Amino acid sequence: MKQQIVTKINGQQHVLQVSPRKTLLAMLREQLQLTGTKEGCGTGDCGACTVLLDGQPVNSCLVLGVEIDGREVITIEGLDNDGELHPVQEALVERGGMQCGFCTPGIALNGAALLQDNPDPDEAQIRRALAGNLCRCTGYVKIVEAIQEAARKWREKSATRTPAPEPADG
Amino acid sequence: MMQELDLKTVGSRATKVDGPAIVTGRAQYADDVQLPGMVYGRLLHNPHPHARIRRIDTTRALAVPGVVDVVTGADLPDLDLFATDEVCYQGQKVGVVVADDPDVAADALELIEVEYEVLPAVVDPLVALQHDSPPVRLDAPASEHKDADGRVLPNVTTHGELVEGDVERGFAEADVVVEAEYNVPFFHQNYLEPNASTARLEPDGRITIWTAAQGSFNIRDAVAGALRLPHGRIRVIVTQVGGAFGAKNGIFVEAHAAMLAMRLRRPVKITMRRDEEFLDGNPAPGCHVYLKTGARKDGTLTALEGRIVWDRGWLGGGGAANRLRGLYRIPHIKLESYGVRTNKPRPGAYRAPGSIQTAFARESNMDLLARKLNMDPVELRLMNAISTGDPSLNGTPLEKDWLRLTIQRTAAAAEWGKRKLGPNQGIGIACGEWTNGAGPSNAFITLGEDGSVTLLTGQVDITGLHTTLAQIVAEELAVDLTKVKVTLGNTDMVPYTALSAGSLATYSAGTAAREAARRARHRILRAAAEFLEVDADQLEMGAGRVVSRSDASLSVGLAELAASARRSSEGPISGQWVLGSLPTHPSYSVHIATVEVDPGTGRVRLLDLVAGQDVGRALNPMLVEGQIHGGATQCLGLGLMEGYKYGGNEHLLNADLVDNPIPTAMDVPVIRTVMVEEPCSDGPYGAKGVGEPPMIPGAAAIANAIHDAVGIRVTTVPITPERVLRVLQAGAAEQA
């Protein structure tokens, strides 16, 4: 029996009929053809299926599709801004922080979430943040460099942005 | 010093041509292929290390709504896609369910009833080597191999001997002898992308297969063989490959998907799960090595004797001993090798196959020898290393002093002998050798009417090849890198192309691309000469134009030239090169590891790794560094944490990424690379293959560093905290 959910995926509202047994990962890949989210293990060990659920990185293989009812998901297809790459994406390309690329979508999303929380992470914080995203090709060296570079870009970008209005008291 | 070539794009840190597609999730991997009307296959795997199949009943599975087909070996009497009688390893395929939803297929799988009669099994190669070992396969041909007492060795499939000089004399000449036994388990490539293959029956009766593999032609040939079809019936399209490391040289589920697509006349996709990759993949073979090395007091090596027993899984097969030697001058050698069958999956290639295991033994022994001689391990290696003119591992004389240079420069970068180490910290060095392959490859270049250049090749890009090929074409045609587009040709589009394996891809396809580009360049200059009405030798290429050397106002753009060539007698501008083979050269890697051992817990922390490599010429230093980082990390994974573990009942205990872990970002230190650029005479611009060498010496470097840190020798990888503690405690007991 399928269940109806209302959700926002990459900024777009969706009303979906979802089988309760389908993981968020399967729903994204099979039902919505958002195949940028990868399945590396299906057991939450590798992080290739990372998406942002209400801004937080999650393994989409460990979340059911029906659980995102009323919530918001960002997948790798929604990380760029109308074709303008996110600083993490840009730095991963420029610094060679990818080889086969299968883990890259998950790493890019996790890296973006890290910078959202901590725009100036040190190397240890970056390594800790990425500990759940396995990469078999790079030895993480250039991924870590790329996140450091992205953080610099991210801070520059934030600095040039118009400051948000002060929140009202009370 | 490196030969100076005036290179602009080659040698630059160009970013990956597929980088933007990868980083936005648009790159199409094997499991991303979705076809209208597609159904999903899930494989049923035997759960026992060794058993006889008594009965299979698929009735209940077939009755599940949504199930399209259930196939077992009984349905395919002429093919060997499924076991029908005897199963010889845990994970062997016994059937497949096809359904319109992958989860339905998984449900139905559980409803197939298989009755097994469990048989005795053996997973330890040293047990399998004995005359009284249970046979791994009841249906195997009788073994020709016997032990010293004339008893048949049922599971031995090969035995070889390599003799040089007189080993007894060599040991008689030795003042110091060391010997040890080493163990390496099965270990898995653990590419992040599980195998997935999709097949479709075309209107003309041919079959198209989309899959992630290291070469389309090998897959085509293997599927044709498995299904007993002519090659021409099959077209293979290789998708983006999500890591391979040698494993994806051959077929996994391609033939099964193709068989089902023919049977059902619908597109069929089969995607493997991670546990299936461990159980039914083709991991690296394990081995047991006994090795004895002798030297004179001054450190000169005199003799090497050893025996290696290769664990070749259920199908058996060979395994060489030659890589136990090859880096050092040793006059007297006797090496024996056995290939034995065990109740395990058939092992396959993994990044420098055979080199990793043998390097662990060889380089550990070198360290033991240095200790016993009271010599510096770097000095011992340098004095025995083969040098210019000496025969390399495969016999050809060494063109340059590559090995010694790599040892020297890596040691210098690691400040060998100058580092102040803390308590329980140690440093260790190890060396590796690999000779890249060179195989059929090709490149077809076309100049477009917009001034762009397309390069078509059959050589699969796994981690950066097409970027390097684009650099080569841009270099030769003096165009901007962004003007070059690389397309991977499928089996219908290009001639037979070798696998991207054996570190041969850049070496071979890079040469083809350079030669094709030079031919295109020649055509361009001729067409421009005609267009500008000057001599071709008066012209030069630059920035997408052809310009007269004597009069800069005389020039024509490549776009205009391509358009006008359409109407010329010679026709559109192109250049092509089909490569057969090339001479090859060994390349060397040297790792220096610094570790800290916690004597209370046995935990080994890798503090630092300096990875040196003799690369010939780095055509793209960023990509070469990436290969070194990745290879070194895989080898440290084997050194410290990876490997198959079997329980007392011969069952695999760790078919997942938690219990069979690979290094995370937290496990890997910063890896410093040292690229020794001393070009070889045959690779493109002097380059050598770079993918495999960095995988080789890391585990031995770590073992040697641990010895330096806490004075113990661990001879089995992975060097887990338990193993370190056990050896530490045994050492303490000995002293007490």
CATH-wise, what's the superfamily of the largest domain in chain A?
Beta-grasp domain
Side by side, the strands of the main sheet of chain A go 2-1-5-3-4
Helix content of chain B: 25-40%
In what order do the strands lie side by side in the largest sheet of chain B?
A: 3-5-1-12-9-10-11
Could you describe the largest sheet of chain A, including whether it forms a barrel? 5 strands, mixed
CATH architecture of the largest domain in chain A: Roll
CATH fold node name of the domain at 362-434 and 585-735 in chain B: Aldehyde Oxidoreductase, domain 4
- Supply the CATH class of the domain at 362-434 and 585-735 in chain B: Alpha Beta
Number of strands of chain B: 26
Give a quick set of tags describing it.
heterodimer; A: 170 residues; alpha+beta; Ubiquitin-like (UB roll); DNA polymerase, domain 1; 2 domains; five-stranded mixed β-sheet; 5 strands; 15% strand; B: 736 residues; Aldehyde Oxidoreductase, domain 4; Aldehyde Oxidoreductase, domain 3; seven-stranded mixed β-sheet; 17 helices; 26 strands
Structure write-up:
Chain A is α+β, with helices and mostly antiparallel strands and 170 residues long. Chain A folds into two domains: 3-75, Ubiquitin-like (UB roll), CATH 3.10.20.30; 87-159, [2Fe-2S]-binding domain (DNA polymerase, domain 1). Chain A has five helices and five strands. Chain A has a five-stranded mixed β-sheet with strand order 2-1-5-3-4, with helices on one face. In chain A, a hairpin with a 2-residue loop joins strand 1 (3-9) and strand 2 (12-18). The longest helix of chain A is centred in the C-terminal third of the chain and has 20 residues, at 141-160. The mean pLDDT of chain A is 94. Chain B is 26% helix and 24% strand. In chain B, helix 9 (355-373) packs parallel to helix 16 (698-710) and helix 13 crosses helix 14. In chain B, strand 13 (286-295) and strand 14 (301-311) form a beta hairpin. Chain B has 736 residues and is α+β, with helices and mostly antiparallel strands. A seven-stranded mixed β-sheet of chain B has the order 3-5-1-12-9-10-11, with helices on both faces. Chain B is globular, with a radius of gyration of 28 Å. Among the domains of chain B are: 19-25 and 438-579, Aldehyde oxidase/xanthine dehydrogenase, molybdopterin binding domain (Aldehyde Oxidoreductase, domain 4, 2-Layer Sandwich); 33-119, Alpha-Beta Complex (Aldehyde Oxidoreductase, domain 3); 362-434 and 585-735, Aldehyde Oxidoreductase, domain 4, CATH 3.30.365.10. Classes of the chains: A alpha+beta (170), B alpha+beta (736). Chains A and B meet through helix 1, helix 2, helix 3, helix 4 and helix 5 of A and helix 1 and helix 15 of B.
